[in-house]
Amino acid sequence: MIVMGIESSCDETGVGIVRRREDGTCELLADEVASSVDQHARYGGVVPEVASRAHLEAIVPTMRRALAAAGIERPDALAVTIGPGLAGALLVGVAAAKAYAAAWDVPFYALNHLGGHVAVDTLEHGPMPPSVALLVSGGHTHLLHVTSLEQPIVELGSTVDDAAGEAFDKVARLLGLGYPGGPALDAIARDGDPSAIAFPRGMTGPRDARHDFSFSGLKTAVARYVEKCAREDRAVPIPDVAASFQEAVADVLTMKALRACGDLGVDTLVLGGGATANSRIRSLAAERCEAAGVTLRVPKPRLCTDNGVMIAALGAHVVAGGARPSPLTVATDPGLPVSTAQVSS
Ligand code: ATP
Ligand code: MG
Ligand code: FE
After folding, report:
1. Which CDD domains does its entry note (predicted)?
2. Which residue of 33, 103, 136, 273 sits 20 to 30 Å from the alpha carbon of 85, by its own alpha carbon?
3. Residues 266 and 249 occupy one common structural domain
């Protein structure tokens, strides 16, 4: 069975195609992404109207490229991100998916973007056992309990203020590293000393029973440090600040993820979302999982950031699980919570 996934929740127009084999594994047939990131760079963040227009221009050519890459004329099922995300951006992908599903007469599945970030790992590492998932992206930071991709996902905790990816972007901006800042900060941190500056680790105390996160204090601490350098008339040691900030984020995320594994008695940790492309989050997660006897599953960096393949991968599981298609009348849901993989009414 061949499933096409369409993603347009933010600034990436993604179309992915996967084939699900009888044994439950999936093969990637196409992964096409058109990004409007360059158009947002001069504003220092995603401009929703600009993103919507870019999706409108890119959606049909991107679908055509994906079909050509996969060597097919149409998939057996079509899956699309229905939320969460930017309202206007979501509308473009959903309208295209509905139109093509109707024209091709193939079933249509309205799916959760966040479920896609978790499900994409199954492409590389096969069916997912009960897991704790650490989802870290530009708009979200969640710890999740995933019993199976067909069951509702249980949220164990989330950020009470900034998302971790957002903190990366804001700190990068503060350091003059441009936009999007996450990858640039990751690169420059390689030349820095992660223990140079002791930045705070929010909500890591023994009393924080829920698995929540806070990154705004850390972001403020970096801002104060930069101000202090200016007052003292000395240059900001950018690599050291980047490395120390990144270490604080990676420390908190991986520590709390492993604490959740321990509390739930779960021995698999899955990473997902754009910020888990970060090299230090990946290496520290690997170190700590190894020490704790927890199996770590991490998609390759390209599949961590937004793409259509993740929606195709989730779609393949939803279809194989016997779910009924979503009606073509289903509406986009910019604030869709993480719990529902598929929206069916
Ligand atoms: P959401 O999934 O919450 O809707 P999103 O769709 O905007 O968010 P993703 O593509 O999942 O975004 O993630 C983008 C985020 O990932 C940005 O904040 C970006 O800075 C961050 N990011 C990407 N690569 C890295 C990296 N190597 N290090 C740190 N952060 C990174
Ligand atoms: Mg993006
Ligand atoms: Fe995302």
Report:
1. ASKHA_NBD_TsaD_bac
2. 103
3. yes
C-alpha distances out from residue 160 to 141, 298, 342, Å: 9, 25, 25
Q: Does one domain contain both 154 and 10? A: no
| Residues bordering ligand 2, an ion, CB closer than 5 Å | 10-12
Q: Is 251 in the pocket of ligand 1 (CB under 6 A)?
A: no
Q: Is residue 337 part of a domain?
A: no
- Residue 345 to residue 333: CA distance in whole angstroms: 12
CATH number, domain of 230, equals 3.30.420.40
| Nearest atom (ligand 1) to Cα of 273 | 11
Is any atom of ligand 1 closer than 6 Å to the C-beta of 172? no
Give the residue, by CA position, lying nearest to ligand 1 atom 8.
Answer: 138
**Each residue's pLDDT tens digit, 291-315:** 999 999 999 999 999 999 999 999 9
Give the closest ligand to the alpha carbon of residue 303: 1
- ipTM comes to 0.96
Pick the closest to residue 151 from 115, 124, 181, 125 (CA basis). Answer: 115
Q: Is residue 57 in some structural domain?
A: yes
Domain tally, the chain: 2
For ligand 1, what atom is nearest to the CA of residue 274? 13
Please indicate, yes or no, whether residues 30 and 77 belong to a single structural domain of this protein.
yes
Supply the range of the domain harboring residue 71: 1-123+301-319
Do 142 and 8 share a structural domain? no
Cα separation, 219 vs 252, whole angstroms: 14
What distance in Å separates the CA atoms of residue 129 and residue 162, rounded to the nearest whole number? Answer: 30
